[in-house]
Amino acid sequence: MKRTLLFMVITVAAVLGLAVPASAAPHFNGEVAWVSYGEYGANVSGSVSGLGNDPADATLTASATYQIWCTLLSGGFYALPEWYYPDSIVTVVQSDSQTLGVGRADFDLNVELAPPAPPSDACPYDGIEYYQLVSFDSPTLAITQNGVVALTETYSA
Fold first, then answer.
1. Confidence at 39, pLDDT banded by 50, 70, 90
2. The CATH classification of domain 24-154, taken from the options 2.60.40, 2.40.128, 3.30.420, 1.20.58
């Protein structure tokens, strides 16, 4: 009887031990680099691991201020002044995500923020409009699993 009871306790403990999911310990591998590209936006790149067995997403969010610049057919370019076009400076909240996958392996991340499309009628004399980045405010990278933030990093822009 004692052996049967001991066998049952050991069996139940073993089954419960297998049913407990492996814990995750997410962390960045070295430096996760924040790079701003002027008119082309910005990105974060690096590596993350220790995500456990749940799928994960990397989301980069920042408030960005852009100014419209015009390129003339002659090749010159200039910043469009606010007195000429009142909406020449805009601030937008941007966000982009990347699915990292499942498992304990290292995952490379490369999340980008691209500038928005400028209005097509802003520049005089058939100039070509584009947004030039003025600044980013508190760009933040968040690694989430099952809707919960597992890891976060805020950069000084």
1. low
2. 2.60.40
**Single-letter code of the amino acid located at 31:** E
SS3 per-residue string spanning 29-96: CCCCEEEECHHHCEEEEEEEECCCCCCEEEEEEEEEEEEEEEECCCCCEEECCCCCCCCCEEEEEEEE
Q: Is 60 exposed, middle or buried (0-12, 13-18, 19+ CB in 10 A)?
A: buried
Listed by start position, the domains of the chain span 24-154
pTM beyond 0.85 = no
Q: What is the rounded CA–CA span in Å between residue 35 and residue 94?
A: 15
How many C-beta neighbours within 10 Å does residue 134 have? Answer: 14
pLDDT in tens, 115-124: 777 777 778 7
